[in-house]
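Here is a protein:
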Amino acid sequence: MINREEALDSVMANVENKNLIKHMLATEAVMRSLAIRLGEDEELWGLTGLLHDIDMDLCQADMNIHSKLGADLVRDMGVGEEVANAVLRHNEAHGVSPETNLDKALYCADALTGLITTTALVRPDKKIGSVELKSIKKKYREKGFAAGVNREQIETCRDLGIELDEFIQLGLDAMKGISSDLGL
């Protein structure tokens, strides 16, 4: 299996959009925290989060191709079938539901990072350090806020045995831990 440095090199070689790279780093951080919380393999889960959108530029954001190509890319990197399946299953366009805990974690973490980032960006200081759980929950209830973030997708954290408030706090803490990498 490749290591994190090799995975990050692949991300940098395949993804030009800096905000997308930040999203992938945020998803990695949340996945690592979820792995610790659930007693899973932190490295494997982190790599899954880091690599999950590696094909977005290559497929020009065509959601009918996205994640199929990504699954093939990570499979070719030797990351493993479990990661390839999670990458494929995080995109609803293919009609393949998340099955394993890894699949489910990536599915809900992917959406959560967008909500947390958007909440930070509307703060006066635009810093994640000033974001609290109550701020995110308030914004979460506003349908027009971060309209592209699928709340139902985030709520699938319950399929992992984690309640919504705990999941949001876990994600927030994880992202605060890499705030400088995220520019937040």
Summary: The chain has a mean pLDDT of 96. Residues 18-38 form the longest helix (21 residues).
